[in-house]
Amino acid sequence: MTASPQVTDDSTTAGWATRQNLLDAAERLIAQHGVAGSSLRKITSDAGTNLAAANYHFGTKEGLVKAVVSRHLGPLNGERLRRLAALEADGDPSLEELVQAFVGPVIRYGLERQDQGRDIAKIFGRAMTQPEDTLRDLLMQEMRPVIHRFSAAFGQALPHLGQQELMWRIFFMIGSMGHTMAGAHMLERVTDGMCNLQDRDGLLKRLQAFLCAGLRAPATLPADSTAAPSSETSP
């Protein structure tokens, strides 16, 4: 009789390492090939483990993909919401403060992790630009509470914008953030290092100025110039 594959308990050091290896392998492969192009067998092979271990730690492939998304967005969104709560506790946040609270944690996180940061950006880019229903649904689950809170705060800071215009501009802000995470290294190469990614404070100040100018622009269409959304408005 063939022995069953050995599965290490998650509470042990070896079990934790196996889990991390599976997450790292899934992240790399999904960034390169998408969810559909990354079979669980390929992921476990790259992670140096087996299907039994993947099933033990995550239950299903969707459970593994969800863990990949959550291990990055969970802490990032928590930091965003903590920053927003601190700003609101001190009074009415400025637009610049809100943009920094929303964008800053993500940009710093991505740049500090270099190649892994670009993989994260590619995964989120796939969720928004390709027919990856699993990724898109998981991303929306993670982002909905953050968008809900920040859209209300941005609405208070931008009272000249109606709900529709505001949500478009938040969408454009998210796109600029993702593009910066995924492609800023290309700008560094094109400019022969003049635009230096190590100058993270400078990058964030430039991105903040760009985003605030766009957010403050007059409403695009007359119908979009209406009262700001309340905190009860769902995105």
Essential attributes:
mainly alpha; 235 residues; Tetracycline Repressor, domain 2; 2 domains; 0% strand; disordered C terminus
List the helices and strands and how they pair.
Elements: H1 13-33, H2 40-47, H3 51-58, H4 61-89, H5 95-112, H6 115-129, H7 133-157, H8 163-190, H9 200-216
Helix pairs in contact: 1-2, 1-4, 1-6, 3-4, 4-5, 4-7, 5-6, 5-8, 5-9, 6-7, 6-8, 8-9
Structural commentary:
Helices cover 72% and strands 0% of the residues. The protein is mainly α and 235 residues long. It folds into 2 domains: 11-59, Homeodomain-like (Arc Repressor Mutant, subunit A), CATH 1.10.10.60; 69-224, Tetracycline Repressor, domain 2 (Orthogonal Bundle), CATH 1.10.357. The model is unreliable at 1-9 and 227-235 (pLDDT under 50).
Question: Kindly, what is the distance between the CA atoms of the first and last residues, rounded to a whole number of angstroms?
Answer: 56 Å
User: What is the overall number of helices?
Assistant: 9
Percent of residues in helices? over 70%
- What is the tally of beta strands? 0
Q: Gyration radius, to the nearest Å?
A: 20 Å
Number of domains: 2
CATH superfamily of the largest domain: Tetracycline Repressor, domain 2
Task: Give the overall shape.
Answer: globular
- CATH class wording of the largest domain: Mainly Alpha
Name the beta content range: under 5%
Based on secondary structure, the structural category is: mainly alpha
